[in-house]
């Protein structure tokens, strides 16, 4: 089955708005390939390998950094070319629980991310995340730096 760029955009939108934006793990089976690979700072020691691992890693993040009530994730750019979809979005989330050993600060953190996804047969098989999340990076630096620069 070959999907069109329009179909790929729709799949990526569900992933961004529902999975990332609302923490709805039930959509994972619809949008993520079983063997999806993700490159993200949420797993600094290597790629996330597989849908179940992605759900686990992102669930922990979403639990610690829930969206601020009344604040919606805003997609700023979204486009497709062949089997790729690129999405840039902005969200504001509260550091409500411990994450990577960093105690909750209850600060509102702005996340600005670009996700470059590759899709095959209606599923995301690869997601490479690039972020301008300075507040998050500085907050996590004491614990993440040793994991990254070992």
Structure in words:
The protein is of the alpha+beta class and about 150 residues long. It has a single domain (about 5-150), classed as Nuclear Transport Factor 2, Chain: A (Roll). The chain has four helices and six strands; from the N terminus they run ααββαββββα. The protein has a six-stranded mixed β-sheet with strand order 2-1-6-5-4-3, with helices on both faces. The radius of gyration is 15 Å and the shape is globular. The mean pLDDT is about 95.
Elements, N to C (H/E): HHEEHEEEEH
Q: What does the main sheet amount to? A: 6 strands, mixed
Distance between the termini: 43 Å
Number of domains as seen in the coordinates: 1
Q: Structural class from helices and strands?
A: alpha+beta
CATH class: Alpha Beta
- What's the helix count? 4
**CATH-derived topology:** Nuclear Transport Factor 2, Chain: A
For the largest sheet, list the strands in their spatial order: 2-1-6-5-4-3
Number of strands: 6
* Strand-residue proportion: 25-35%
Q: Give the name of the CATH architecture.
A: Roll
Round the mean pLDDT to the nearest integer and report it.
Answer: 93
| Helicity range | 25-40%
* Basic shape: globular
Q: What Rg is obtained from the alpha carbons, in whole angstroms?
A: 15 Å
Residue runs with pLDDT of under 50 for 5 or more positions: none
